[in-house]
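Reviewer 2 asked us to include a model.

Predict the structure of this chain.
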Amino acid sequence: MPDVSAIVVTLNSATWIERCLESLRGTGAEVIVVDHGSTDETLELVQKTCPDARIVQQENLGFGAGNNTGMRVASGRYFLLLNADAWLREDALERLVAFADEHPEAAVVGPRLLNPDGTLQRSVRGYPSPWRIATEYFFLRKLAPRSRALNAFYGAGFDHESVREAEFLGGACLLVRREAVDSIGGFDEDFFLMSEEVDWCYRFRQAGWKVLFYPGAEAFHVLTSSVNPAQFQLLVRGHLRFLRKHHGLRTAERARRVMLWALRMRGLLFPGERGRAYRDAARWLGSGKTAALLESSE
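Predicted model (structure tokens):
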């Protein structure tokens, strides 16, 4: 049985998939690619770059669902969930496994993420709440970048230089213990895209497991600076779904109102595609209360 099964979910991922899979070469990891209907050269590049990869093709039921499929067919004692637009730095997987073996209390271990140019990509995060959403969506955190109260949504200004227990970690590259997944289950597939890792890490921690950030291993991740209107609405929806699930409808409704007024403001301030993303999300948030909005998307 391999130590690690690497799972990569793809959908028209030809731009980066070669680099992703090349970073797994020589690691000894079992490689599983779950494809959600790519129409570009993704599958041809997978077969060329990693001929031994197991390819599973299925309908696109969401990012979490794709990873769940990969984990169901995987045989490793750890799952490496790696975005198709992410790749490991040399020895990163070996370092992650060694660290996880030394910390059996950890369900999830995440490396330090870097942008392709080598600069830090902040990945330590805090759970959403109405207050934390307000600090982000109304730009309050920029008033006091070092303040813990105004920056808890973003790991309270953590420098990403030391081991830290996190509420959750950005999901571009995560090493996950099979035993922990067996104990609480996989991703909640109601989160189609965005916030699925937030919910998962919350459930791990509620069950007594830890989520650990480990800067001794590094991975690169392509994070676009543009705001995609469709994906931004999924992000907003994910906040509401998480809050309703774990804190009740009343808390989720407070968060809806906070985001509605903040995004109306942002829609006036920002031009172009970014402003359109905010205005579209505000219109959606203003079209009904939380229960109705989430029911219409289920």
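The chain has two domains: 4-123+160-221, 229-296. Residues 249-269 form the longest helix (21 residues). We have added this to the supplementary material.
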